[in-house]
Amino acid sequence: MNRSYDVAIVGGGPVGSTAARICAKSGLKTLLIEEQAHFGYPVQCAGLLSDSAFRECEVSCSSVLNTVSGADVHAGEATCSFDAGRTMAYVVDRGALDHEMGKAAADAGADIQLKTIASGISRTSGILHLKGVNGPEDVSYSMLIAADGPRSSISRMVGIPRAPVYLSGLQCDVYHALPPDHVQIYPNASPEFFGWMIPLHPDQTRIGLCGIHHVKERFSEFIKPFQNKATHFVSGTIPLGTLTRSYDDRILIAGDAAAMAKPTSGGGVYTGIRAARHAAEVAIRCIEMDDFSPKAMASYEHSWKADFGHEISRGFHFFQIRQKISEKDMESLIRTLSHPNLQEVITRKGDMDRPSGLIKALLSHPRMIPAYYLMGKAFARSKL
After folding, report:
1. Residue 10, burial from CB neighbour count under 10 angstroms (0-12, 13-18, 19+)
2. Are 214 and 133 in the same domain?
3. What is the spatial distance between Cα 300 and Cα 279, in angstroms, rounded to a whole number?
4. How confident is the model at residue 368 (pLDDT cuts 50, 70, 90)?
5. Same structural domain, 129 and 212
6. Contacts of 154 (CB under 8 A, 6+ apart)
């Protein structure tokens, strides 16, 4: 006889663990499935979480390696620096953070099944087919939450088209000292996105970049000054643009599985956990009311879109414009943004998770007039 659960959750990252903790805490019989042998591995994240994202995780500070209050953005000879005078982001050990969140789900009452993959779904009967260390197994569910990452098998199984854009990311840890409270950003290191240097420890820095084309070559060039100091290499994938639909029959899709990463930064923890909260609330309500109608499933998408959907759609629009900004024009843009008046706006309005307010404030500022022409050129190219 199959094991039976109210909610089955595929993917044991921050998104899946959050959904599992909330569902289990509400009294639902909950199963959390993770394909790896440990939560948080392999690491596929830069490990830089905004203050808001870190608070959404509801964890201790045991995973924190460093805190940052500002950033320096470099393009050619131009540099724009800003500092909020307070902690804006946390540099974390993602393995430790994910483990703590997985443990919280277990402590709330969720069953945890590691080294297990979802190999198929029988939607009409609500059966999830699993393959794990003990062989194949079927479990029944009332609701299924897919938090299984950028290459989501659940999304594929139910026939939802892939995200419109996939970024490839490469990074490594090197022995190199940086100012401990500032992240270094290099837009021209990767013309489709950007490169970064994140201070981990007094003598150690995380260096990486994301892009679409020639990522390996650009990464090799970017780390050339540190190639004999690297200690750890990591690769990853970031889907952008959201899916055409984030739900199916008794199935809700969240986080990278639904391409919810922010197109302006590539970060997906904040939006993913926000979506996990909405998914858990909908799952709890559907089970309590015995309502699994298409309207009930669609309420999940309405909820997360009302929360942060506009940030993703606007961010993706700016991502498309960014593709058309040349290295020379990027240098001019950064030089414009280095004006003290604009730096004050960045410091006052800056929000890593909801950047549309900052973008609007900058575009309406008279000091941005020199940048209007190049932004207009990039906008026109993005429409071709």
Report:
1. buried
2. no
3. 6
4. confident
5. no
6. 10, 118, 121, 144, 146, 148, 251, 253, 257
3-class secondary structure for 289-331? HCCCCHHHHHHHHHHHHHHHHHHHHHHHHHHHHHCCCCHHHHH
d(CA 308, CA 131): 35
For residues 244 and 287, what is the distance between their CA atoms, to the nearest angstrom? Answer: 25
Residue at a domain's end among 203, 223, 240: 240
- Give the integer Cα–Cα distance in Å for 290 and 280: 15
pLDDT for 32-67, tens place per residue?
999 999 998 887 889 999 999 999 999 999 999 999
Q: Which of 124, 114, 212 is nearest to 165 (CA)?
A: 212
CA 190 to CA 103: how far, in whole Å? 37
Distance CA 255, CA 55 (A): 17
Q: Are residues 130 and 150 in the same domain?
A: yes
Residue at token pair 């500070």: 61
